[in-house]
Amino acid sequence: PRSLKVGEFPRGLQLTLVKGDFVIRSEATMVARPDRRLLARWWVNGKAVLPPWPKKIQAIDIGGLVPIGREMKVAFGLPKTLGRLKVGDKVALQVMYSPGMVQVLTDKPLPFAWRLLKDDIKVPLLSNRLEFVVREAMLTGGKAPAVNPVVMAILERLEAAGDKYPNITAKIDYKVDMLQTGDTEARTGKVYYQGPGKKEPAKFRIHFDTLRQGAGPKIKDVVDYAFDGAWLTVRKQRIKQMNRYQVAPPGQKVNPLQLGKGPFPVPFGQKAKTVIKHFRPSTRPLKKADPKNTDYLKLTTRRRFRREFSVVWLEMWVDRKKGLPVKIVAEDRSENITTVLFRDIKTPKSFPKKTFTLPRPPGSWEYHVERYKGIAKP
Hints:
five-stranded antiparallel beta sheet, 39% strand
């Protein structure tokens, strides 16, 4: 070893994860052969992983082009030595660049050209410690998680029904059991759903006409929820109040009906691929209490989406003939159990334009408008 001059030692490496690649950057020139110049150490959930000593030494290919620069990329991968990982595990990586190359256990002599390669780095350099949370796509190589063929058939039938019946209306029985307080709220009404078009997002309207709280009497309580692609309007006739929430950025449209995200569990028009991405789907044989001539489907929110989605799990009973849901039971993060029964389902060709818009109320009503703030919570 020798003494280093002031300023001769460059700062450490910068390690990042960009679009499926580990990217290593340096202020000084590097020989961009990670298999010969880089060493890596890993941690899983805060514990260092020591790789086992190999039983058989394999020679490394030392041929090919040798680029030189201040950046090198390594395709993302999780080595088998990390053990059996699961979604949610925290993995950390740190790399060291060795200007003198990594010692290779091989009887092949180094090519003469390799001995001539020089870089601007005089001492080994360490990178930052990069930590990331394991996602399902990392474990499956970006492929969709494997799904039971029976479950997949139900999801595909559900998707096909959404394509076949873009417009749906049904009577609904809606009930919420609030487990934390012991309260119960039951409503009856009607739902209108219009699937997305080429330039229009999905729209819906839910019209409630009765309310029963706990064991109390059923009373008339007209409440409307209408979404036109950008604005969610809530009109409560009994207390003469209307609120409008802009749930999409100005000039944009959103899909508030995505399972687990919307204000109501409206299950129409769901895509199998999207459902599988966000939920773990499963099924079981029908029970006596289940709706007849249906298939049972349970969707459990995948761990990485639990903070983003309000629904923890959702059960669905899909009609075998039309492929449309006839019953839903869902639990949200506040431990509220919502049950929705769909009756007298119809599939009209179209809806009047005014179906999904609510006019401004009379001046005697309380009226509020809340413009887009990133996330609107009615």
